[in-house]
Fold this protein.
Amino acid sequence: MSSQRKPIPQQVADEVMFGNRRTCCVCRQVSPSVVIHHIDGNRDNNVAENLAVLCPNCHSNVHSDAGLGRRFTQGELLRYKGDWEARNEAAAGLAVAAGQTAEEPPGSIWEENGRTYARYEDHILCYWWKTQDLVAVDIRWDDGSHFYVETDLEGNVSTCEPRFGLSAYSLSFAPGQIKSKAEVPLADGLRRVTYVLQDDRVIDVVLDPEGRIQQLSGSCARFNTSSQTVSFPSRQET
């Protein structure tokens, strides 16, 4: 007689779902449904450290041997899980700081919980970490938009991941600013559009089937929260 699988305790499931913002820790795309996967394959090992939130597509890539693709290994999943939960923890800390420091005047800079915060006219920026050639920050705008951004020391954006609000923005280019445009279809109806500007900067964006921004990288991106547009002014304008 086979033993029955132990259900994940609700308190543990709630902790894991909240820590991952109910979002797949691998692709980090919002999905209508997600599953909780046992990383070590033992369905009775229900400790939070062994549980990863995955979308159905990434979950199938854990179990499937079809085609030429490789499965996700346990080591990969642990890294994805750890990185995603750390980023969400940092974002949650920023949200608390934003709520507690809304009255800080523009130009204020302060330290809290080992992080540096700066208040601007319409957003709070949290410096998460910095190396010799890279700055990682969380930005929370007063309208609720929230991004994780990595830039080089000159402000060129290499990564812009939505926490909340990026999909509501649209790209805005000045007349004649685009030199060329290329589009490549991706899985699940997504498409990658690459723009080359007249000054040879490259803007790379992933759009969903409705044309909403899912991922963005580019040089000197500027977010306008009133018009909800992303523009790319020249260095002289920034």
